[in-house]
């Protein structure tokens, strides 16, 4: 079966239909296979046939869930972005911010990070992927960052900010730079020291606290 070219621009997950319920295990296998094939071949080299083969299902099974490879990649992005769940209130700005940085580091160092690599490259000339990059991956961090700032302002830890979402830009930009673009970060995980993510958090946390008008504890 060839690649389908039609795309549901608003698709965020498997296509709903009548009949027996879908197998959640197959959905998960297809999403994981998508990340693996993207990592190996990039977006241009990804085919639904390759994903289905890697997941051990037929292409018909895949197309019952996603209408095109673009829908499949969008659905995969939404799935991994959903791992960035609500943040518990740690009682301090430093604790809340450290938790946000740690969650983002874990995402970037896992399947979500490999997917983000692909989306960043493709979003420059693919409007649908650019939208999902913002709404499924960046927007949840903005919401979390706004919550962190609101709590800190309410506690009197920092003065009010004109735009709390700037913190999200600092978090995402800094972590992407440290984990994706810094040469030594790719090799640090193989040492006995802290992981690349933990090292980045140690470096970034004091700077982010000062930028918000607070001092590290």
Notable traits:
217 residues; elongated; mainly alpha; 10 helices
The number of distinct helices, counting runs of at least 4 residues, comes to 10
**Unreliable runs, pLDDT <50, ≥5 residues?**
1-13, 16-20
Which sequence of SSEs, written as H and E, runs from N to C? HHHHHHHHHH
Spatial extent as radius of gyration? 19 Å
Instruction: Give a short account of the largest sheet.
Output: none
Strand content: under 5%
Mean pLDDT over all positions: 80
What is the first-to-last residue Cα distance?
59 Å
Strand runs, count: 0
The rough form would be described as elongated
**Main structural class:** mainly alpha
Proportion of residues in helical segments: 55-70%
Quaternary assembly: single chain
What do these coordinates show?
The protein is an all-alpha fold. It is 66% helix and 0% strand. The protein has ten helices and no strands. The chain is elongated and about 55 Å long. The N and C termini lie far apart (59 Å). It comes from Streptomyces sirii.
Question: SSE layout and pairings?
Answer:
Layout: H1 24-45, H2 48-55, H3 59-63, H4 69-81, H5 93-108, H6 111-123, H7 127-155, H8 165-181, H9 185-188, H10 196-211
């Amino acid at each position: 079966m060839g690649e389908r070219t039609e795309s549901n621009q608003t698709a965020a997950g498997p296509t709903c239909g009548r009949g027996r319920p879908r197998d959640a295990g197959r959905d998960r296998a297809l999403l994981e296979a998508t990340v693996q094939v993207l990592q190996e071949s990039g977006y241009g080299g990804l085919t639904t046939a390759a994903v289905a083969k890697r997941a051990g299902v037929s292409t018909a099974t895949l197309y019952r869930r996603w209408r095109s490879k673009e829908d499949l990649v969008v659905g995969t992005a939404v799935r991994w972005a959903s791992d960035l769940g609500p943040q518990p209130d740690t009682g301090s700005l430093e604790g809340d911010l450290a938790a946000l940085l740690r969650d983002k580091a874990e995402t970037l160092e896992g399947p979500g990070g490999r997917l983000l690599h692909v989306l960043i490259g493709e979003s420059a000339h693919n409007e649908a992927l650019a939208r999902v990059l913002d709404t499924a991956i960046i927007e949840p961090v903005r919401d979390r960052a706004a919550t962190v700032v609101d709590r800190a302002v309410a506690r009197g830890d920092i003065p009010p900010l004109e735009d709390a979402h700037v913190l999200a830009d600092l978090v995402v930009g800094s972590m992407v730079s440290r984990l994706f673009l810094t040469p030594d970060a790719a090799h640090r995980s193989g040492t006995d020291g802290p992981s690349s993510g933990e090292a980045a958090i140690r470096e970034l946390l004091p700077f982010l606290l000062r930028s918000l008008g607070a001092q590290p504890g």
